[in-house]
Amino acid sequence: MPRPIGRVAADQAYFLILEEVVPDNRMILQRELDEVKIQISALAKTLEERPDYGLGKGSPAVVRREVDRALLRRLRRRAESLEQALSRLSSGLYGICTQCGGPIHPERLMVMPDAESCIDCAQRSGSERNALDATMATRKGAKLE
Fold first, then answer.
1. Domain boundaries, the chain
2. Which end of the chain is more exposed for a tag (fewer CB within 10 A), N or C?
3. Total Cβ atoms within 10 A of residue 35
4. What are the C-alpha distances in Å from 116 to residues 20, 25, 41, 83, 99?
5. Residue 79, pLDDT above cutoff 80
6. pTM attached to this predicted model
7. Which residues have CB under 8 Å from 117's CB, separation 6+?
């Protein structure tokens, strides 16, 4: 894995640990991306069908369609996140926080292979996605520093 210039480049021990995590994470990321793309395709096909919005007929169909549309948006965001993580792997930037340039703890990457920020930045950012990421990682028992 190429070592980037910057704050993380000097930490050789970090890269030794990270190099053990990367091969597994590449496979995990690619497998999950493939699965998400299959789900997107199936859901998009389902959404091509228009429910019957006739008087007294539409309520459950409308609700189901809106739930499916929300799920499709979520799956597309997930696919984008996975693709970005694979891109960072290819460019040698995997494991480096996109916000502060510091290392992302390898245990965090094992729990969340597509993590793009360290736990500190994820908690500081306050975004729903990053807060959820931090919570999920913590619940899985990772010791994140």
1. 12-139
2. C
3. 14
4. 18, 13, 26, 12, 8
5. yes
6. 0.70
7. 97, 98, 99, 100, 104, 125, 130, 133
